[in-house]
Amino acid sequence: MNSITYVGNKYQEVKHHLNIKDVATRLGSKLTQQGKDTYHGTCPTGHASKSGTSFSIDNTKQLFHCFSCKIGGDTITLVEKAKGISNWEALKWLNEEYNLKVDLNGLQNIPKPSPEEIKEKEELIKKSMILERIYEIGKEKLYTEEGKDEL
User: Fold this and answer.
1) Which residues pair with residue 63 across a beta bridge?
2) Is 106 left (phi over 0), alpha (psi -120 to 50) or beta?
3) Residue 42 to residue 30: CA distance in whole angstroms
4) Which of 109, 111, 136, 140 is the most buried (most CB within 10 A)?
C-alpha cells in the first residue's frame, strides 16, 4: 500500500465515525434545520454574520460551506479552519476529542496540499452546495400549484 492510500484510509476511517453536524455544533456553530438533511447557521470560525445563516451543512454528503468565509469541505477541514490548525492536527484533534482510537502513527510527515489543490476542492464543494440548494427549492416549488407555473 502506498503512502497516499494509507493516508486516505486513515482520513476515511476518522471521518466514518463522525457526523459533521455534531462536529460543527461542538465547535460552537448554532444550526437550524433547513431541509431534510441540510442545516444553516453560524460559522464556527467565529466571524460575524448578520443573518446567522451564512454557514451551511449537507449532512448527507458530510460537507460544509460558509458563504462569508468562502471556505468549505469535510469534517476534517471544518476543524482545521475553525481551530486554525493544520490538517494533521485537525485529524489528531478529532481522534482524541471523539475517542476514536484510530492509529495515526506515520501520518506526521505527509505533505500539505498545494494552495491550488485546496482552492479547487473548496470550489467543487461550493458548487455542490449551491446545486443542492437549487434542487431543494425546485422540489419545494414543484409541489405547489403556483410553483408549477414558475417552473
Assistant:
1) 58
2) left
3) 5
4) 136
